[in-house]
Design a protein that fits this description.
There is one protein chain. By secondary structure, the chain is mostly helical. The chain has a domain at 3-129. 91% of the residues lie in helices and 0% in strands. The chain contains 5 helices and no strands. Helix 1 runs antiparallel to helix 2 (41-64), helix 1 crosses helix 3 (70-86) and helix 1 crosses helix 4 (88-164). It is elongated and about 130 Å long. The model has no long low-confidence stretch (mean pLDDT 88).
Length: 196
């Protein structure tokens, strides 16, 4: 590999180191600002390092056919160290302000949607539920009142018929008594049979 190609590879690796540091700072600030659970951080770290490794190797494959030599690590080290020495504080402050702004925009949008849509919608739903309750109670009360009115003449007729059937009921009284005594005897016999 020529010296020019090696120089280009070192330059690309330095850029990779800068980008890795930048992404790591943004990821660090985002996980802090959005309160990512601590138990998720090791998994996210693994994802970050896997993505960084794949990115570096894809650049190596496209520029020096995937050769990993000492100057590759040297370029990465220079890039990462240079980034953390020169830009990290600025990027952390800038990304923190950016995430705060995004958070404020989302909170404002959520309050706007809540005020314009959700609160009136919930108010309408509660009002409809109360109206339906009142309509149901009034309907049931009206139906009961109508039913009572309709059954009033029938109740009078039923009482009159029951009173008029008194002689007939008296005629059938011995039959009813005989049936009851027969059923009691049958029950006694059945109980005695079961005891045996």
């Amino acid at each position: 590999m020529s010296a020019a190609a090696q120089g280009m590879t070192i330059a690309f690796m330095m850029m990779c180191g800068l980008v890795m540091g930048l992404v790591f700072d943004v990821y660090r600030v985002a996980s802090h600002r959005f309160h990512v659970a601590r138990w998720l951080l090791p998994g996210l770290d693994v994802v970050y390092w896997a993505a960084a490794t794949l990115g570096v190797f894809s650049i190596l494959l496209s520029h020096n056919e995937g050769e990993v030599r000492m100057y590759v690590f040297l370029g990465l080290g220079i890039g990462v160290t240079g980034y953390f020495g020169l830009f990290s504080n600025w990027v952390v402050k800038l990304s923190g302000k950016l995430f705060d702004m995004i958070k404020s925009i989302f909170l404002f949008a959520w309050k706007l949607v809540d005020t314009i849509l959700l609160t009136p919608f919930l108010w309408i739903v509660r009002l409809l539920a109360k109206i339906l309750d009142i309509v149901f109670i009034v309907t049931v009360a009206t139906l009961l009142w109508i039913g009572k009115l309709l059954l009033k003449p029938v109740a009078r007729i039923g009482g009159w018929v029951w009173h008029k059937l008194l002689p007939v009921r008296r005629k059938f009284e011995p039959v009813v008594k005989a049936y009851r005594s027969l059923s009691e005897r049958a029950k006694r016999i059945r109980d005695a049979w079961r005891k045996k």
